[in-house]
Design a protein that fits this description.
Layout (H helix, E strand, L loop, with lengths): L2 E5 L5 H11 L4 E4 L10 H4 L9 E4 L2 E3 L2 H12 L13 H14 L1 H13 L7 H21 L12 H15 L8 H11 L2 H8 L3
Parallel strand pairs: 1-2
Antiparallel strand pairs: 1-3, 3-4
Helix pairs in contact: 1-3, 1-7, 1-9, 4-7, 5-6, 5-7
Length: 205
């Protein structure tokens, strides 16, 4: 197999690196500094036509959605490790958390980041930041009420934790960690202690 990831630290490609380490896969990781302008230049758009991260290649096959990539890797190259299928009793919970990490929370945390730190100050809209914060509180409240006092989202660590964990990382770096409840903060701390996370988050350009 020839598995290559173009990785930009702190972006959604972090999910793929983390999953690769957790799955024990040999990924060819090309780490680049994040520069939003360069993602819109022709050479990068040839790799990822939407000018986002990540971009992953399995030979000639290209994928650009981080949650889809980690599921693909688990099922194609790791015998379903850290994944679930319809034969598992927690399959529904697994699917819900996998999707909630991006479809449920991703947009709101993106608005929080944009209107609190990423956009130039003259382009930030306080009403948008407040709206995103309110919606994120609701999402985090759902997560808080679903977590136990220890462990992970399912009975054991899974790709769902990688999906959700990355979003919690963005909540922290957007200086909104205070929105997390006690169980959620403790859950993120547990994720941060995993060797796969430590190795992935330590990668630099």
């Amino acid at each position: 197999m020839s598995l290559k990831l173009i990785h930009f630290p702190m972006t959604r490609s972090l999910r793929v690196v983390w999953a690769g380490y957790e799955l024990g896969l040999d990924l060819d990781i090309e780490t680049r500094p994040f520069d939003r302008a360069k993602l819109k230049q022709p050479d990068y758009l040839k790799l990822n036509p939407v000018g986002k991260t990540p971009v992953f290649f399995d030979g000639d096959k290209r994928m650009i959605e981080s949650v889809a990539i980690i599921e693909y890797l688990a099922n194609k190259y790791a015998d379903g490790k850290l994944s679930r299928n319809a034969s598992h009793t927690d399959y529904g919970d697994y699917l819900q958390w996998m999707e909630f990490g991006e479809a449920g929370m991703g947009g709101y945390v993106g608005q929080l980041l944009g209107h609190s730190m990423l956009l130039p100050e003259e382009q930030r809209i306080e009403a948008m930041r407040i709206w995103a914060e309110t919606e994120m509180k609701t999402c985090l409240g759902f997560l808080e009420s679903s977590l136990g006092d220890d462990g992970y989202l399912l009975d054991e660590f899974s790709l769902a934790d990688i999906s959700i964990g990355y979003i919690l990382f963005l909540v922290k770096i957007s200086r909104n960690g205070g929105l997390m409840g006690e169980k959620t903060a403790a859950y993120f701390a547990r994720l941060s202690e995993r060797d796969g996370w430590k190795r992935a988050s330590a990668l630099k350009p």
